[in-house]
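Sharing a chain and its predicted structure for anyone who wants a worked example. Both blocks are below, sequence first, tokens second.
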Amino acid sequence: MSAATMLARAGVEVRLVDLDPGWRVAGAGITLTASTLRAFKALGILDRVIDEGHTHEGIRVCDVEGRPLEDVRSPPLGADIPGAGGILRPVLHRILADGLGALGAEVRLGVGVRSVDQHESGNAAVDFTDGTQDRYDVVVGADGIHSGLRKLLFPEAPGPRFTEQACWRFTTERPPAIDRRHFFLGGRGKCGLTPVSASEMYLFYLEHVPGNPWREPGQQHVLLRSLLGEYGGVLAGVRNALGPRSQIVYRPLEAHVLRGGWSRGCAVLIGDAAHASTPQLASGAGMAAEDGIVLAEELARADSVPAALEAFVCRRFERCRMVVENSLEIGRLEMSGAPPADQTAVVARSLAALAAPI
């Protein structure tokens, strides 16, 4: 939606195709860095994100009892851009969809891509799963970590790899004391709380799961309560509130960076299809939004589509690689039980790098 928004705003005729007929979004909340909020300003949605989400300053690092150890600053990247924030995934989806609808972009739901046939003339014929076909000057694959477009364009490319971690998430009521993102370090896993609205927050817990075991959905609240058993303070209340009706999202973590280029002819991959990160730097959504912004900029200034796509990848590769690799580094430190200061040092270094212009 970020790429479609920027292209439609530039006067490009855009068709967004999504496989889900309900155009739903899975998950709990999204943590927002200052660089992500800067991208949302470029997309024209920052005011609504601030109004409907929660913005705040930095991260408070605590021990397992909830006692503060350190505050990691996240300075704002402009007078009107907060330093950090959070928002519910469905709320962000609605804000982006509203903006795209206001631009008049066409949205087709319940349709997938069967093939992409590139022609010598420079455009591509796309066959859809509903039996229709159309030609396009640019094809953008923004279809996630298990991208079908990636398999069509780069069949030889390796897929994402499992990191030996899994993430638990669920949304719950926010006490006033949780006025910013909190990390709780020193336990068996890494736990955190992120405010996502005036009254809500989401909890995340990163667990070391080398065998990638199956977690029965009906019993997930029991296991998560056990994993949170060593925590005191505010987390004790969160733990005690877990029950069969808690909307828990459990997800094994995978990551990848597509190397050797993200484009072929007039087709390009963006977002998780090209560079999927684990959540340690809370920058997956931000990198995807930035991709959409930069792609539109390069298509507007280049003499040809292939030149624009090459310039896009040149601008994006190192930044996205850094996010993926530094997130994986933090994950390895978490799993090895490294001191909290070692983990927060990588976070601070990465946030400083993300403050640079895109």
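Comments welcome. The two ends are 18 Å apart (CA to CA).
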